[in-house]
Amino acid sequence: MVRTIIPIAIGLDPHDVEHLYRKVEGAGFYHHKRAMVFALAAVEMACWDLIGKGAPLHKLWGGKYRERIEMIAYLFVSDPEKVAAEARHYVDRGFRTIKLKTGVDERSDVPIAKAVREAVGPDIRNRADVNGAWTPGTAKRMISRLAPFDLEYVEQPLVHDDLLGHAQLRRWSPGLWQARKAASICEAAGIPVTLHSGGELGCSTAAYLHLAASTPNMFPAIDGQQHNQADDVVPIPRCSATTTAVPWGVQMMRRRIFRQVDVFTKVPFLGNPLAVVLDGNDLSTEEMQGFTRWTNLSEATFVLPAVDPKADYRVRIFTGSGELPFAGHPTLGTCHAWLEAGGTPHGSEIVQECELGLVRITRMGGRLAFAAPPRRRSGAVGEDELVTICQALAINRSDIIDHSWCDNGPEWRAILLKSAEQVLSLRPDPSVLGDIKLGIVGPHSGGDCAFEVRAIYGTEEDPVTGSLNAAVAQWLIGGGHAPDRYVASQGAAL
Asked: Is the dihedral of CA 270, 271, 273, 276 positive or negative?
C-alpha cells in the first residue's frame, strides 16, 4: 500500500474513487489481485472518510434503508457436541443466524450441521463456510448431504477463482464502491446479498455497517466476528445480540498516560497498589469502572481538570464495585503520580478535588500527607449494628469503650476497645459483618505507637487504610481519647 497504491493516489481528488480503481488496475497491479484488494480498499476507505467528514457514509450512498443491521455468530469449533453447545449459547444471547466453519474434515461437516440444527431448532438460520476446501465433485456430494439441515447457503465451496468448476461463484469485488455496484446488479436481478467478514476491527466494521444500512437487498444477516474479539481499536457499538446500530463518528482510541504505584511503603510490593490514569478526560463512568475491574487492584483513580478554581486537579476514585467520594491511599498515590508526571501546584500545598470536596496534601521531605477531610457522618453507631459487630468479633458489648461513625467517603464504623492487645487477638468473622465496614482501635500501653488499628470490610482486612485513620483521628482527638498528634500502627495482625 505504502510503496504502490498511495503514490498513485496522491494528487487525486478523493471523490474520484472510480478513477482511482482504474488507475491502479491500469498500472498492472491486477497481477497481484489479493494484495491489491486489501491495499486499495484501505486507501478507498480513507477517501470516503475525507468525503464524509461531518456526514455519515450512508448519506453518500442513498441514505439509511434500515436502522439496525443483523449480524451473525461465527463458530470455529469442529467438535459437534461443543459447537452445538456454543450455538445454543449465542442463540440465548439473541443471535438469529449462526455460521459454521466446515471443510476441515468431510467426516465432521455433516455431524456439525446436524448437531447445530438439532440444538437451535428450525427457526434459526444456519450457514456454512467451506473456505474453498472442496473440489467440484465433493461440493456437489456434500451440499446434497447437508440439504436436510436447511442451510441458508454454503459459502465458497470451491477456491474463489475456479470459474469453470463453479459458474455461480463470483470473484471478490474489492472495496466499498465495488461492493455497492455488485449489490445493485444483484438487486436488479432480485438476488439478496450479504457481507463477508475477515475479522475486521472497528474502522472496517463501521464502514460496512454503513454499507449494509444503505443497501436495500442486504436482507441476510451480515458476517461479523466482534463476538470473538477481546478488544477493538475504536469504541464502536459492539454486537452483543442479534443486531448492531449504525455507528456515528468513529475515532481511534486515544492513548492515555497510566501509572501503577505502591502506596504506604518504601519496599516494592509491600504497600497498597493503585492504578492511576493521568488523563481521564472523556471517559464515561462505565469505562472507568470497567478499567478498574480489569486492573484487579483494590482501587483505580482517574485524574481530570479541576472544577473548583482552588484545586490543582480533580480525581475520581473507583473500587471494583463502585465509586468512592474519597479514599486515603488513592489520594496519596494519585498525588505522587501527578507530581512525577510534571504536575505543578498553584501554591506550597497540593489541593485535590474529589466528590467529598477539597483535600489538602503537604510534601514532607520525600513523603506526602493529606489533611483529614470533613466526615460526612459522625455520632454514635446504632445498637443493632453494635450487636452484630460484637457477634462478628466474639466480644462482649462491655468491651467497647466508645464507638462512632467515621464516614468520610467509605462508610466506616469505628469502635474503641480496651487495649491494642485485644485488637490484635481478634479473629473477625466477615460473614457476620455483611456490608458493615469496621474500624477497630485499641491503645498501646507504651512504645512509639499510641494506637493499634484494624480495618475489616467485605471478606478482606486492609493492611493500611488512610481514610479510616484520618476519620478515627478526628473522632479520637475530638472525643478526648488521643492527643493532638499521635502515631498509629496497622497491619500487624496480617
From this structure: negative
